[in-house]
Specification:
Keywords: Glycoprotein, Ion channel, Ion transport, Membrane, Receptor, Signal, Transmembrane, Transmembrane helix, Transport. This protein is of the alpha/beta class. It starts with a helix and ends in a 6-residue tail after the last helix. It is 52% helix and 16% strand. The protein contains 15 helices and 12 strands. The protein has 2 domains: 170 residues, 3-Layer(aba) Sandwich (D-Maltodextrin-Binding Protein, domain 2); 206 residues, Helix Hairpins (Orthogonal Bundle), CATH 1.10.287.70.
């Protein structure tokens, strides 16, 4: 007759229960230990992914370094918004511009933000993300070169100037004629009764009063004449202020209109650009000889000193850099679109998720406010 293990060892009922409980607890602890080990193994790669190494280099207005060593700019803000969207941590590593592509390609950097527009040569060894900003090549000139005799002639014969001139002289003729009608009998010494001389005296008085010159050679004496003079004094102040503002706006607009109408006009100028940049490549394609400068500040300084006639570089960077140069301006001419994206390793599995996050960020109101902050009135 077969007996169980517990019967063969002579265990009592309470002993058998104790053994069952002990075996159950042992099995439970073993399962939990395996689950913990599996969880630690799965968590290790995830924790490694959370901190990305981001190569970065100062390229205003995309990347700039503050006095306290922190980074800011359009590209930095994009990376911040992407980190939040993807729930990823990252750290910035300052990297030389020429090393960004190679260090991303060999895995030293997980990603990079730099002044490298999307191009076919680099795309062969790395991948660019969806562009987060679209710019173009722009041209900076000196204002003093624009304010020549030709410019002044164009300004004085422009429709806007002639309109403002008519807005000023029209009321002068009306007020001058009215003051003569009111003063010609009571004040014939200053406002002659003869229409030709009298009306001209009225024009003279209205012009002197409007410009606040106040020669005092002519003044109304009648009650209605003085009442008209009071009205004209206040009205002339308002009219002069409006006209001055309109002329200033028209002058600014005329200055902003480039004396260079096309890229072909660059051939006859002394042109400067940043060496080994996308702008330098475009000028080389156009067969425009250009002097190379180390950075945008050096080029704009040379332009201000008159060493070159025009400085050609990325339009967004020029717009930011020209804030510190009152004698220079950005022309309306732009050519060769430049798209800026993040530099990523080739065939990165996270590229699709990153591109989706970039597109989502570009459609947000917050991103448009950030662009307006760094590049006011920029529509791209």
């Amino acid at each position: 007759m077969r007996r169980s293990f517990f019967h063969s060892t002579g265990m009592s009922g309470s002993g058998r229960v104790f053994c069952f409980v002990a075996l159950f607890l042992f099995a439970l602890f073993a399962v939990q230990a395996r689950a913990q080990d599996a969880g630690d193994t799965a968590a290790a790669p995830a924790s490694e992914k959370t901190a990305m190494t981001v190569g970065i280099h100062s390229v205003p207005p995309f990347v700039m370094k503050d006095r306290d060593g922190s980074w800011y700019g359009l590209g930095v803000d994009m990376m911040t918004m992407l980190g939040r969207a993807l729930h990823r941590d990252y750290r910035f590593v300052e990297t030389a511009p020429g090393d960004m592509i190679s260090q991303v390609a060999d895995g030293t950097l997980d990603i990079a933000i730099g002044a490298v527009p999307v191009n076919a040569a680099d795309e062969a060894v790395i991948d660019f993300s969806q562009p987060y900003y679209s710019s173009s090549v722009g041209v900076a000139l000196r204002i003093v070169d624009r304010l020549g005799p030709r410019f002044m002639l164009e300004l004085l014969t422009s429709r806007a100037f002639l309109y403002m001139l008519g807005l000023l002289t029209g009321p002068v003729f009306v007020i001058g004629a009215l003051i003569w009608l009111l003063e010609r009998r009571a004040n014939p010494e200053q406002f002659e009764p003869r229409p030709a001389r009298g009306v001209f005296s009225g024009f003279w008085w209205a012009t002197v009063t409007m410009t606040t010159v106040g020669y005092g050679d002519k003044a109304p004496m009648t009650f209605l004449g003085r009442l008209l003079a009071m009205f004209w004094m206040f009205a002339a102040l308002i009219l002069t202020a409006i006209t001055t503002a309109q002329l200033a706006a028209g002058l600014t607009s005329s200055i902003s209109t480039s004396a260079i109408e096309g890229v072909g006009d660059l051939a006859g100028l002394k042109v400067g650009t940043v060496g080994n940049s996308a702008a330098a490549y475009e000028l080389d394609v156009l067969q425009v000889t250009a002097s190379d400068y180390t950075d945008i500040a050096a080029g704009l300084d040379a332009l201000e000193r008159g060493e070159i006639d025009a400085f050609v570089y990325d339009r967004a960077a020029l717009q930011w850099g020209l804030r510190n140069y009152s004698g220079l301006y950005l022309t309306a001419l732009s050519f060769s679109q430049q798209n800026y994206g993040l530099i990523m390793p080739e065939n990165d599995p996270e590229r699709e998720a990153l591109n989706i996050a970039i597109l989502s960020t570009l459609s947000s109101e917050q991103w448009h406010l950030l662009v307006e902050r760094y590049l006011p009135s920029d529509g791209r």
